[in-house]
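Bench notes, afternoon.
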Amino acid sequence: MRNVYFPPFQAAVEAGVGTFMSAYMDLNDVPASGNRFLLHEVCGANGGFKGFVVSDAMAVGNLVIEGFGPRWT
């Protein structure tokens, strides 16, 4: 991942991008829209990204269906 997928995103950060969109994919069985490793470690703390991340369509709502979010009653 670090050799193939991350370099274009790092180049975007270095160019000053302000927003990324998370995907529907998962990494290690955790959806990208709720994946702390991707959002905080890769993008934020170690990646230097200071902008914000939006979810793709209903990805955050799907976190509940996939068992990664609270159930609202």
